[in-house]
Specification:
This protein has eight helices and twelve strands. By secondary structure, the chain is an alpha+beta fold. It has a single domain, classed as Glutamine Phosphoribosylpyrophosphate, subunit 1, domain 1 (4-Layer Sandwich), CATH 3.60.20.30. The strands form two sheets. It has an eight-stranded mixed β-sheet. A four-stranded antiparallel β-sheet has the order 7-8-9-10, covered by helices on one side. It is globular, with a radius of gyration of 17 Å. It starts with a strand and ends with a strand. The model has no long low-confidence stretch (mean pLDDT about 95). The chain binds glycine. Glycine binds next to strand 8.
Length: about 290
């Protein structure tokens, strides 16, 4: 099996002066995940490593630098799923540096979605990196929130999909949600089938975009279902986004890997940052437009 990794930095408008930061961040995420795969790590370990890089980068709407909710707070959702159908998720957590790692700890414990205080207690008890909730607020986000500026360049959500050398697939997604979202709102990213899906027999997917549009069309599972009959992931990804656009309003994107290691992605926003790597390539490919 050819190990393959793809990451996204969110579907939305990316201003020209943010293109380089999106390229750098997505490339670094792929390299972190790729190093795990080269070291013999699993698909889930590679997904976690890649998403941790994006969560630590203020360029992206996940953990540090995430968009602020109605109360001016960073409130985070994340989930991870393996192709064995094992999964873990957190939602509406604060003061957690790497929600994807907490989701993974939950998955390795027993599959469930933990929210808010219960998730934060689990994070502390399992030794996750905690911080003051204010420590995740980036200056740029705070200034925009105070001025009530319309934010046009926050790529919405980050994600990663991996096929490892033993043919195991995994997907992960992490987000700060939507700008000025109501405190306690949870979008698609932590919801299996919507923000992510993985099935070793077919493929794996991570999505990005407006949760209120993604949830009713179950976007990640819809994209996986379009892979049946050996359809190429690029075509399946486009069909999933077209299906969303035909049924609901809203911007969305998705990245896919099938069980042969073929990749695909599609979006209906102006931009989506994407980077990928496999053993046939000598360096990471990275884009903010397809
Ligand atoms: N896709 C992120 C959200 O809607 O919360």
């Amino acid at each position: 099996m050819i190990p393959t990794i793809i990451v996204h930095g969110g579907a939305k408008t990316i201003k020209d002066d943010k293109v380089a930061a999106n390229h750098t961040g997505c490339t670094a995420a792929v390299e972190a995940g790729w190093a795990v795969l080269l070291g013999g790590g699993t698909a889930a370990e590679a997904v976690e490593a890649a998403i941790r890089v994006l969560e630590a980068d203020q360029t992206f709407n996940a953990a540090l630098g995430a968009t602020l909710n109605s109360d001016g707070e960073v409130e985070l959702d994340a989930a991870i799923m393996e192709g064995s159908l094992n999964w873990g998720a957190v939602a509406a957590v604060q003061g957690v540096r790497h929600p994807i790692s907490v989701a993974r700890k939950i998955m390795d414990d027993k599959p469930r979605l933990l929210v808010a205080r219960g998730a934060e207690r689990f994070a502390v008890d399992s030794g996750a990196e905690m911080c003051k909730k204010e420590d995740l607020i980036a200056e740029e986000q705070w200034q925009q929130w105070k001025k009530d500026e319309k934010v046009i360049d926050r790529p919405n959500t980050v994600g990663c999909v991996v096929l490892d050398a033993s043919g195991i697939l995994a997907a992960g997604t992490s987000t700060g949600g939507t700008t000025k979202q109501q405190q306690g709102r949870v979008g698609d990213s932590a919801v299996i089938g919507c923000g992510l899906y993985a099935d070793n027999k077919i493929g794996a997917c991570s999505t990005t975009g407006d949760g209120e549009s993604i949830i009713p069309v179950v976007l990640a599972k819809t994209a996986i279902d379009f892979l049946v009959g050996d359809r190429h992931p690029d075509e399946a990804a486009q069909m999933a986004i077209d299906a969303l656009a035909s049924k609901v309003k809203g911007e969305a994107g998705c990245i896919l890997i099938d069980n042969q290691g073929r990749i695909g992605w599609a979006y209906n926003s102006q931009n989506m940052a994407v980077a990928y790597m496999n053993t046939d390539m000598d360096r990471t490919a990275v884009f903010t437009r397809k």
